[in-house]
Amino acid sequence: MKSLNFSSRDIVCGALFILVGLFFAVQAYGLELGTAVRMGPGYFPFVLAGILVILGIIVIIQGTQIEHEPMGPIAWRGMLFILPAPVFFGLTVRGLGFVPSLFLTALIAAFASTKMRPGMALLLVGGLTIFSVVVFSYALGLPFRRFGPWLGQ
Amino acid sequence: MELFNNLVLGFTTAGAPWNLFFCLVGVILGTLIGVLPGIGATATIAMLLPITFQLEPVSSLIMLAGIYYGAQYGGSTTAILINMPGESSSAVTAIDGYQMARKGRAGAALAIAAIGSFFAGTVSTVLVAVFAPPLTAIALKFGSAEYFSLMIVGLVSSIALAHGSVVKALGMVVLGLLLGLVGTDIYTGTPRFNLGILELSDGLNFVALAVGVFGIAEILRNLENEHDRDVMIKKVTNLWPTKQDWKEMTAPILRGTAIGSALGILPGGGAILASFASYTVEKRMSKTPEEFGKGAVAGVAGPESANNAGAQTSFIPMLTLGIPANPVMALMIGAMIIQGIVPGPNVATEQPALFWGIIASMWIGNLMLILLNLPLIGLWVKLLTIPYYMLFPAIIAFCSIGVYSVNSNVFDLYAVAFFGLIGYVLAKLRCEPAPLLLGFVLGPLLEEHLRRAMIMSRGDATTFVTRPISLTLLLLAAAVLVVVLLPSIRKKRDEVFVED
Amino acid sequence: MRKILISLAATATFALASSTAFSQGYPERNITMVVPFAAGGPTDTVTRLVAETMSKDLGQQILVENVGGAGGTLGASQVAKAEADGYTLLLHHIGMATSATLYRKLPYDTLNAFEYVGLVTDVPMTIVSKKDFEAKDLKGLVEYVKANADKISLANAGIGAASHLCGMLFMNEIKVPLVTVPYKGTGPAMTDLLGGQVDLMCDQTTNTTKQIKGGTIKAYAVTSAKRLDALPDVPTVEEAGLPGMQVGIWHGIYAPKGTPTEVTEKLSASLQKALKDPNIIARFAELGTVPVTDAEATPAGLKSKLESEVARWKPIIEAAGQYAD
Question: Which of A3, B126, B264, C260 matches a 20 to 30 Å C-alpha distance to C107?
């Protein structure tokens, strides 16, 4: 039964290709396809999406021939703190202003590591914020508001 | 003789102490800002541009050229040290450069990049000086049919970027092509694949995508098992290339310079293919192709040289036609206009001191770059000894600033997080990000040129084979395909025989 | 919610505060001027020149912020939503008027979302062709185009670009539909015109003057009322027989709706001063344009320009049937 030893990695990867391909294909089909001579906005993406689906299928079929390999640990804590950090910056940079927004962004990111202790984090993030404000806001004069309207300024 | 006089004029202009000083300041600032993670050459130049407005036109442009080289090298530095390319070209450097760094050879990788860039810069500066006008005439022969065929060559070559499964790499290229089409169809104005989000109507931001799939994904991978990295740092050995390295890097640097110089001349986006093309060639020529993706010296030396040569020769269409070949050149033209110089076919005759001064300062900028950066390599490598948990909050902060500063668009920051997640998932699935980025930059160009060529030929598809340059390129693509696929087919057959 | 409360409070404070006291202090800190296009383009150049000169007069730095995307509508909608305190301004070109029709789902109401500071400049366009095109003058061009309509390709720099607008106007005037070839921006379009891959284009003097002078492309007419100092040999569209082609890429400065009149008046006065600055006049001349008159660099001048241009382009864009969303 060795031939049925599917690699979960390749199945997920192939499925991902197929899903994304289908998404683009459906979206492209809703656009004007046109002809090969007078291509519409949907023609080229529709062809590509079809190719991606086929490649996805091949990946899955090939996956049956390769030995199973463990996926390794997943950085849940990392994802929990790293991914929201830039989003937080985006949500607050205009409202809170550059200084507090950057400080909090870096602080959130800092806690992605289990090795980070609160005191250390504050020190590091504080220094980082001062450096960034001096370089980007004062020296380079980027048009960031240092403290935003949410703080009553 | 005239060339000699022109070069003397150029070096007298650029060599004036005041101008040398601004060139040096430019190189230093460009390196320092460009080395911040997530801040690539375009963002660095956009940030530093206003500083140059206060200067005399010649000094201002010389300083800007310095910033440009500094920013580019700074970008390669972050690509090598922390796998964070800020530009499509340094995405290729990241592949083997970062692997070298992981093996404790960050110093050698940085030195190889600097030496390759310097050599390429020197050769291509001479090219610009001697051949600018005739090369421009050739470049103008490229219409959409030729560009389409050129992009096909690029696409076929991309298979070599894979060092795992070829099918997965192809899938990543196609995924990249599709992502590159998100936005608005330029031919009809129809919005596509933008999920109704107005911020996506000009497409996904390249920097957000690159920072996400390379940088953020790499941080997440490092956080999986926090003990791995400490081990790696202790192994930092010599800072300089060994004798063996010198032997391995010479030919790739020469080839990279030739490839980059040729592609950079094309104003329609040839330069973006330079580093990818060089990587393909090196992997093909190498006696040990299995080393590629694991820290091959040639995989850093070739693409870095190609990249710098391409960057240099892309000044040709800008200086002789006034046409920007890439966003960085668009910024340079903006700076020139603000200085009261409108680049165009007459700049060389109307303002010879300025024209030749810029060309001379290209070489001086490259020289200063290597003089400044070789001693700094020790410092950059030391950065790696900072504990990782202290490094990555800074990386996240600088990425956020860099991505935001380009268009002041908060949506790009959400895209960073989204592609960070996607990049991490893809990494877990052993899908490599470099082919994705190549697809992303090629996608819109491929479609644009294909459709434009069809419009121009009024729907006659034979246009691709009746135009000689286009036909030559297509034949080249076919040849590359055969060469690339043959060994793997043969290998498969061998495997079959072994199993038998 | 918090943001809304604070902005309500802020509005109330402004309403209560004596408006003269407010304007005496203005500006007390840096002003941000949004350009809805990427750094390095012609509009960015105009903005940086004007911002630098006005900064000297106002005694506070005007920072230029590039908010590019969606044909300028992203930057415009950001300013439309900004606080109406005079510290966020917008410098936009003719696209402000045309996007009202080109975009059917704009997040702001073009005619009611802004206060006006004034017009800045009006950049004329040029009708140009590849170097070896047969026609000798505009009349000959129109005849040739009519006779060979199926062979002619007309380039533009993308939907909503100046060259797209001018091209639509051209086809509208000569009543002949041509094959249009869109590009991503002016640079690639100009490259193909230089290389003879396309035949015709109509674009801003900012992009074409150097090429025309260098003899790399052929110019048939300028779309301004008078001939340009930079191109004295090129006739106006009126002289050449297409008076309806008079068009310019005008630039104006706007502020969010509700910005106190004292502030816009003060900015307008500063703008008028800046437009007399010899450096600005010289730089504008190199770009093939001149600053507008004092009467146009006023809130009323810009308001009437915007209103008339929205009305002018609506039927032309609708006739072409191409929208940007």
Answer: C260
B436 Cβ neighbours under 8 A, 6+ residues apart: B172, B173, B175, B176, B179, B213, B426
Return the closest-CA partner of residue B345 out of B325, B312, B313, B316: B316
What does each C-alpha distance from B496 to A61, B281, B500 come to in angstroms? Answer: 17, 28, 6
**Closest by Cβ to A149, choosing from C6, C30, C65:** C6
**Do β-strands C217-222 and C62-66 pair in parallel, antiparallel, or remain unpaired?**
unpaired
| Chain A nearest C-alpha distance from B395 (Å) | 9
Burial track C62-78 (b if 16+ CB lie within 10 A, e otherwise) = bbbbbbbbbbbbbbbbb
pLDDT bin (cut points 50, 70, 90) of residue A87 is very high
User: In sequence order, which residues have a C-beta less than 8 Å from that of residue B107 and are 6 or more positions away?
Assistant: B236, B238, B239, B240, B377, B378, B381
Q: Is C154 helix (H, G, I), strand (E, B) or coil?
A: strand
**CB atoms < 10 A from the CB of B231, how many?**
8
- Please check whether residue B210 is in contact with residue B415, taking contact to mean a CB–CB distance below 8 angstroms: no
* pLDDT of A52 over the 90 cut: yes
Q: What is the pTM of this model?
A: 0.81
The residue behind tokens 């230029």 is: C64
For residue C127, give the amino acid letter.
I
Contact C61 A149 (CB under 8 A): no
Residue A105's nearest CA partner among A82, A123, A138 is: A82
Contacts 24+ apart (CB under 8 A), B460-467: B461/A36, B461/A37, B463/B145, B464/B145, B464/B148, B464/B149, B467/B143, B467/B145, B467/B146
Determine phi and psi for B239, rounding to 5 degrees. -80, -20
Q: Determine the longest span between alpha carbons in chain B, in angstroms.
A: 75
User: What are chain C's domains?
Assistant: 28-123+249-320 (3.40.190.150), 124-245 (3.40.190.10)
At C268 the three-state DSSP class reads helix
**pLDDT tens digits for range C249-305:** 899 999 999 999 999 999 999 999 999 999 888 888 877 788 888 888 899 999 999
What is the residue type of B47? Answer: M
CA distances for C301 relative to C48, C291, C297, angstroms? 22, 13, 6
Q: In this predicted model, what pLDDT tens digit does every residue of B110-123 receive, in sequence order?
A: 999 999 999 999 99
